[in-house]
Amino acid sequence: MTEPVLKLSGLSKAFGALKVTDAVDLDLRPGEIHALIGPNGAGKSSLIKLVAGELAADAGAIHFDGREISDLDQISRARFGLTRTFQVSSLIPEFSARGNVMFAAQARRRSVFGFLRQVISDKDLVGDAMHALDRVGLADRAAVRVSELSHGEKRLLEIAMALAMQPRIFLMDEPMAGLGQEGSARLIGFLDKLRSEAPILLIEHDMEAVFQLADRISVLVSGRIIARGTADEIRNHPEVRTAYLGEDAA
Ligand SMILES: Nc1ncnc2c1ncn2[C@@H]1O[C@H](COP(=O)(O)OP(=O)(O)OP(=O)(O)O)[C@@H](O)[C@H]1O
């Protein structure tokens, strides 16, 4: 079997008495979309923050490309290509869409080229930014200020910024939220192709999107993985149906 790019082993985190991540084992293989689903407050976002290095784990290990990265900070992890999708809250509203993506492209070039950073030209960054905007269908909105973009466009801009970072894996926290039916359908098509470039760990409440996209689904309830399988396996899993899908399993 192909070696996973990302591997979490016995990962645990508590806020006081609340165990948000309880001995979680999870991996992400090349080319796959692994969805993480679960009810509100199950600990999905916390798990992504642990992987990105925004939160420090209490116990367990994170391996990325076979190397243990548990003790690395967020910036060092980003340098290895492990970064989570930007969030609307981290966009710079006064900058244009292109300006925001240039910012992400610059961060990537700096981390890759290190001491050559002074020779990174605006032309390179504009090229990188326009390419990423074009891929998410925002090229004609490049010069528009973020504050004037619709919510759906801001969500696509987050993805463009992630693309400009050229990560080795994508960590996505509810990318479909607020996109509307047409926007979601377009993003589903895009993510479906994106997985061949870099695998995606996907948190998503839109179950239609999850069942359509995910190669594997892990179900998190109260910080614990209670089930893992393909879309069909999860759809028909009795414990999942009661605990999460809100159905009577009987
Ligand atoms: N910094 C923090 N300090 C204390 N408690 C926190 C902190 N961050 C999250 N929590 C709590 O941890 C639990 C898990 O939160 P988390 O955001 O990871 O869940 P989630 O599954 O992503 O939820 P949602 O689907 O609603 O986004 C929640 O009860 C939340 O209130």
UniProtKB/TrEMBL annotation:
Gene3D superfamilies for this protein: P-loop containing nucleotide triphosphate hydrolases (3.40.50.300)
Pfam entry (one): BCA_ABC_TP_C
Alphabetized SMART domains for the sequence: AAA
One cellular-component annotation, GO: plasma membrane
Keyword terms: ATP-binding, Nucleotide-binding, Transport
Domain ABC transporter: 6-247
Top-level taxon of origin: Bacteria
SUPFAM superfamilies given in the database record: P-loop containing nucleoside triphosphate hydrolases
GO MF: ATP binding; ATP hydrolysis activity
Protein family (similarity comment): Belongs to the ABC transporter superfamily.
Name used for this protein in its record: Amino acid/amide ABC transporter ATP-binding protein 1 (HAAT family)
